[in-house]
Amino acid sequence: MYYFSIILVITTSVLYHMCCKYINESVNPAVSMIGTYSVALIASILSIFIFQNKDIMLEFKKLNWASYTLGIAIFGVEIGFLLAYRNGWSINVAPLFVNIITAIILIFIGICFFKTRLSMINVLGICISVLGLILMNKK
């Protein structure tokens, strides 16, 4: 399951960006999101049979603020990439740019709130990522 889970994320991330790039530009972004989330809802309902629990209603009661906030965050990512691609961002630059900036922000959040520590190799990786951002913006 260790490798399967990361392969699933990589595969669906590639599919995600390809689909965002190919969504009809004339369709209202909100309507596009309604269609997208309708399919996601159906897939989520069907996945209940994969992740079986005895009492589904009890599971819903266990949800906290993070599950609902995640919905808002996912909507922001979805509509953000849709609009980014419609406004000229390249499919080979936008995801990398977003992921590097996000990783850098999460590093600081990890240090400040979760007391994670950075090794010298981590700092080197951050520097290389920042250098990559600079090089990506050179034309």
Report on the architecture of this protein.
It is a single chain. The protein is an all-alpha fold and 139 residues long. The chain is 76% helix and 0% strand. It is built from 6 helices and no strands. It has helices at 2-22, 29-47, 56-61, 65-86, 94-113, 120-136. The protein starts with a helix and ends with a helix. The model has no long low-confidence stretch (mean pLDDT 92).
Helix content: over 70%
Radius of gyration: 18 Å
Tally of strands = 0
| Outline type | globular
Strand content: under 5%
| Major sheet size, sense and barrel closure | none
Low-confidence stretches: none
Number of helices: 6
Q: What oligomeric assembly is this protein in? A: single chain
Q: What is the typical, i.e. mean, pLDDT?
A: 92
Task: Report how far apart the termini are.
Answer: 41 Å
**SSE sequence, one letter per element:** HHHHHH
Q: Specify the structural class.
A: mainly alpha
In short:
This protein is mainly α and 139 residues long. It is 76% helix and 0% strand. The radius of gyration is 18 Å and the shape is globular.
